[in-house]
Amino acid sequence: MPFEASYRRSFSGGVEHLAAIAEFTREAVAALGGGDDDRFACELAVDEAATNAFRHGYRDDPGRVDVRIWREEDSIVLEVRNWGRPFDPAAVPEPDLDRPIEERPLGGLGLFLIRKMMTDVSFAFDSETGNTVTMRRRIGQPIAGNDRG
Amino acid sequence: MENRLEIGVSRAGRDGEITLLVLDGRLHMGTYKILERTLDELLAQDDNHKLVLDLSGVPFLSSAGMRALLAASRSAASKGGALKLAALRPEIGRLMATTGLTTMFDVHETVDEAIASFR
After folding, report:
1. With 0-12 CB in 10 A as exposed, 13-18 as middle and 19+ as buried, what is B111?
2. Tens digit of pLDDT for each residue in A20-48?
3. How much is the ipTM here?
4. What is this structure's pTM?
5. Cross-chain residue pair A55–B73, CB shorter than 8 Å
């Protein structure tokens, strides 16, 4: 039956894997029925989550990041897991886009982009199963569809 | 598959006063340092503060790439110049527009428009 597959791959190392992670994500999302916008949005969300894992979870030391992608009814679900330092999304302020360019802080953009690209996002922390960000995108949702209210 | 970003640098404008960078590849955490290094070297020189980035060859841009662009934009502005983005692919333009990020940059439809905007 279509759409029952779950695509899973482990990447051990660091940001040198981002191109391979993107390729894996694009292929999985396409196989699960996602369109161009879905592929773009999922690629960006997984890139940002994996970057966070490599940079902040493992503090640039080599580490393992697992990516799992599957379909649930009308949505594609992306799961990015690491076993590094727990990540507290509440500690990351949203970027203030109204401030003048020279006053804007540079952090917080990655999480901001994930939330814009996805229908919903959740975080879980467990010392055994790892730190997991689970991101769901309704197929066909416009880019930044969260703006619709 | 490897992280890859190539940057071609040339002079543009009526008197060659503008530096044009043509990017080819994905701009993210695995590649932004290539751009950062190129821009830092250019901005360290006295006559390279007016920059146009041709992004038509960039199919992917993450927050790491945006941060590198923002930092360079600030650096150019602090030296009396500017960094302008041109020829964004539709999906990149839409991403930046719908997230409000276009307000952070001077974005132009074409490289020629970006160059002309310096006059």
Report:
1. buried
2. 999 999 999 999 999 999 999 999 999 99
3. 0.88
4. 0.88
5. no
